[in-house]
Amino acid sequence: MKHIPARRTDADCAVREDPAEIPALRGTARVVIASTRAADGSYEDRTGPHLVQWLRARGLDAVDKQVVSDGPEVGQALAAAIEDGIDIIVTSGGTGISPTDVTPEQTAPLIEREMPGILEEVRRRGAQKIATALLSRGLAGMAGRSFVVNLPGSRGGVEDGISVLDPLLDHLLEQRDGGDHA
Length: 182
Description:
With 182 residues, the protein is an alpha/beta fold.
């Protein structure tokens, strides 16, 4: 059986047969893992390395990762990343409904322009596989010049997030910098 490559449509509406054709991004990124257990070393961070690898593969100049406990430390890490001028800030974890899942509450005060469609689509894709994906409460939006997005802490949720974000990031950064809507 002949392998047929997946077709992708990027934000510029170009159909790309080969992942090598995807435009490289310019800028910086920070991954913030919101997990008290990962922060104290009792649990392995399973999503952060995958997110870092994806962002580096997209050609970003600098990508780093920070693991913090759930709660106010998430907000502090986000505020520091925004202050540092990071272009893309991706969180993973803390978006559910347990009492310690407060990543959206820590993110909301920092967002100036919300982009609800991004997480709506992540939840929709996730719900096609597992109904509990609809319980994720992540946010996305602009905080100054930084794009901030909260992804679930599960590997499946991160995969869904990457599939939604990947074709959008180049256009998002162009628009942020005043680019045309072409």
